[in-house]
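I am still learning, so can you show me any protein sequence you like together with the matching structure tokens, please?
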Amino acid sequence: MQTLPHCETLLLKKQGPVLHVTINRPESRNAMSLQMVAELSTIFTEVESDSSIRAVVIRGSGGHFCAGGDIKDMAGARNQDAGEGETDPFYRLNRAFGQMLQQVNESSKVVVAVTEGAIMGGGFGLACISDVAIAGPTAKFGMPETSLGIIPAQIAPFVVERIGLTQARRLALLGLRIGAAEACALGIVHQAAASDEELNEMLAQALDRIRHCAPNATAETKALLHRVGHESMGGLLDSAADIFAKAVRGSEGAEGTMAFMQKRPPAWTDTK
């Protein structure tokens, strides 16, 4: 990604191996529009082929992460009639969001969510597909869909994967809103900060740890973790052993071993 693309709903800033993506619709508490979905999808498509980027940090402007779906898009879809043989506009809107979530979830990069203020509906789903999630003191998480007469169609599977069926049932079926401490206890986020300063320090520490981990090994590990529960254990372990052997014999394995023996940082920690 030599030049950062222009986005209407996102602010982009590259710092070394980290791409910072700030959702920038503060007038709507960063509600997720179709345009935002398309722009996030474009960014993650480009990031996937950029070896200089090892992590993507997603956060929101104006004190909020993302307050859910954009009501204007919902209203626009309601005014569209599906012609004969055409797909329902509500289906297309909802499914486009789910495809973006799946793309981000399966990205080979480390995805870090910095959550503050409203993290509702689609924003909740976006937090649940991050690899590392940190909550600020103002964070409020929720799945309000059922209280609005709709369903959390695209985020529900990711929420179940994140925190398990039992807890997902309680949040979704009661339309609950919870704070950062409970979100941390449930495993929605990994850390909850007591102040903005602590939030930024937690982010800096996470990015430092990402820098210390080999990029290809990190990507292979993330892909392996996503396969758990979807394949037979024996077959998965056979495949994992093959990946392990290739990693040990590869350039990162050689460099990591040599760096350990020479008591020096491996080459991939130098990101300047």
Observations:
- The first strand starts at residue 10 and ends at 15.
- DSSP finds eleven helices and nine strands in the chain.
